[in-house]
Amino acid sequence: MKNKITIAIDGFSSTGKSTIAKLLAKKYNYIYVDTGAMYRAVSLYAKNKNIINNISLNTNKLIASLNDISLKFVYNKNLGYAEIFLNGDNVESEIRSLEVSQIVSKVAAVSEVRKKLVIAQQKMGKEGGIVMDGRDIGTVVFPNAELKLFMTASADKRAERRYRELIEKGDKVSYEDVLLNVKERDRIDSTRKDSPLIKADDAIEIDNSVMGIQEQFNEICKLVDQKLL
Ligand code: DC
Hints:
Elements: E1 6-11, H1 17-28, E2 31-34, H2 35-48, H3 59-65, E3 71-76, E4 81-86, E5 89-90, H4 98-108, H5 111-124, E6 130-134, H6 137-141, E7 147-152, H7 155-168, H8 175-191, E8 204-207, H9 213-228
Parallel strand pairs: 1-6, 1-7, 2-6, 7-8
Antiparallel strand pairs: 3-4, 4-5
């Protein structure tokens, strides 16, 4: 029996990657890393320093600032997963706003940003026993991961999920804006030059437009168990 494997989960935004990843990490006692949170935290930094707004991104300034950005995950026992800290501040909640969602794809398209974050991600996963979710985990970060999943769902379904989450948090957003953002991020994430969102050849695709969490989780656990044999 293998000890600990690497599980790479990629896919479009709001396909429930992190929900599945957290459940897997809990069941198998693996470390969970939400790489989207890292791109979001860099975006929050850029927003707070006026390096980016809705209209423009000062790419050179962002690149020059990268050494001033320190990211850390700290495990929260009560939540059961790690929260992200940006230069010492817990920004877990702030990075989930629609405002950050509207700029993150532009920041994530900058190669220097990706290089810095990919190195950090590879370091976190070098011992295996990790569930990492993102857009390029099975293609770039861990091309040799033992199990690769690629999650999809219709844009409407994903916008509906994200809209509900934001409303429950008390954010004042419209469904139309959320849907627009989901589609725009799909477009930018899939067409960027560096590490575009694509399914790795050996990834297993899971379309969860009409699949519940428990059903998906059961199917995925079977896949993990096969890899652990
Ligand atoms: O998973 P998420 O929606 O929180 O990710 C936010 C953005 O970060 C997403 O639009 C694309 C980018 N991202 C990326 O380019 N590569 C990753 N490995 C993870 C996220």
